[in-house]
Amino acid sequence: MKVTNVKLLVAMVFVLSGCATVIQGADQKISFDLNPPEATCSVKVPESLPQTVTGSGNSLQVRKGMDDMVVTCKAQGYESKTIMVPSATQIVGLLSMVFDISLGLGDMFTGAMWKDPDHVTNTLDKEARE
Questions:
Q1: What proportion of the chain, given as a percentage, has pLDDT over 70?
Q2: What sign for the dihedral angle of Cα 103, 108, 113, 118?
């Protein structure tokens, strides 16, 4: 009876740890809140071509990865601003590394082990007048 419970617990942990690539996916949608709304931003995700986001087209589908995104915004009458958007490790990816190294390595190579914030805000400052 006790052996069956232990086997069941081990099986549940393995299944729940899963594979982040299957459970979470290797892509992610990120929305942007830009101020002023007429700002245009260049979003650079490592190993991808730069993408553009605006106040009206303010979401992107990006490939996950361990490197940070660089978001540079500009608008007429405002100072341009560049921010770094950090990527963080997901618990599902870590669990797959612990319970099955082959799943964990797959998650690492596909980028599914990491996650960017779902929402990014970039507020520009008005240019100083002399």
A1: 61
A2: negative
